[in-house]
Amino acid sequence: MAESQISQTQFDITIVGGGMVGATAAFCFSQLGLKVALIEAIEPNGEDSSSFDSRAVALSASSIKIFESLGLWPLIRSLACPINHIHVSDRGNPGFTRLHAVDYAVDALGQVITLEQVGPVIWQTIKKQKSITTYCPAKVQAVNHYNDWCELTLSQQDKVSIIQSRLVIAADGTFSQLAAASDIEVARTSYQQHAVIANIQTQKNHENWAYERFTAQGPIALLPLSRHQMGLVWCQSEAEKETTLGLADEAFCQALQKAFGYRLGKIEKVSRRSDYPLSLHLAERHFEQRILLMGNAAHTLHPIAGQGFNLGLRDIAALNDCLISAIENDQDIGSKATLAGYVDSRQQDWQQTVLATDSLTRVFSNDFLPLVMLRNKAMSCLNLLPFAKRQLADAAMGRNLKSSRLACGISNKSMIKEAS
């Protein structure tokens, strides 16, 4: 390749993976006066983008506060639907739990967005930032480690780019190539389930209710979108998933109706369906030689409690705090000390979230009769115990954890002003 086709650039932070976690991280850290590169293999508004598909994601109250502090919430608020009520039930059993925003003096328990709508908006905003350089579509071909920086070789159409960066963030998904290139082992546990994803239209207005219904085959989550539209996550075994995806639209709606019931009236229409396998992936180390794992590259969770992206946002906010501290004390942002401090600050949240998500998955995917009776009794009792319900509501809103600056409403812009 001709020498003129090779470019070399230096950055403070390079983020590999431009999904929701990677894109938000790039925007966040650029506010600290850092020069940021964002590398993504697939155009974010293209049909092949698995990062920005039709999936509905429930944002917790703490996630919304982080978006507000970053200045992104005003850009996506109109695309979100509030969750004012949550209904949790176990099919075939009388136990249930309900949560209402008004009981906790909040406007909403959370907000629902779809990735295909919000992702491109964040990318459009990123491209307007002078301190962010995007490489898309581009792929990392080689990684070289040095004492003071990490060097990435990128291929971008007919051009090769060499990037030198003090810190590289691997936000390249569950099967992270950067994690593999850094010899970071990942513990993988399959749940023997797939999530069937779609949007449905219902006869009744959802009135801002979100539903989690546990069945013998797996949980069903319905998240409110527009008045009669809901985002569906239906967890099933491999064999059941194949059967379900093969159904015509009307037959699919009938099967879902049988599993979910008629709380929303007749299920009238369903969009194009997709699916992905469900498993627990946990990186055994979170960083190696200036490469830090974030998002699904660090921890991929079952969607039963909708905590994956919310956890990723809390990671971004915590790393933001560590970077501010390093900058204020004239320390290396990619040093072992800086990254170890970040990991230490996140251990409790990671452990609690993984344990809660994994336990829920195993307890509610088990049809052992004594366990079914126990969980049904627990849900009935929970609905009658205000303190226990508040604990559940606080967990759903992300209010039961140590808060970062961003989650407390302190913007990066105010931090920069104070430092200057």
TrEMBL record:
Matches recorded under InterPro entries: FAD-bd, FAD/NAD-bd_sf, Ubi_Hdrlase_CS, UbiH, UbiH/COQ6, UbiH/COQ6_monooxygenase
The enzyme's E.C. designation: 1.14.13.-
PROSITE patterns from the UniProt entry: UBIH
Cellular component, GO annotation: ubiquinone biosynthesis complex
Cofactor: FAD
Superkingdom to which the source organism belongs: Bacteria
Subunit structure as annotated in this protein's UniProt entry: Component of the Ubi complex metabolon, which regroups five ubiquinone biosynthesis proteins (UbiE, UbiF, UbiG, UbiH and UbiI) and two accessory factors (UbiK and the lipid-binding protein UbiJ).
Protein name: 2-octaprenyl-6-methoxyphenyl hydroxylase
Natural source organism: Aliikangiella marina
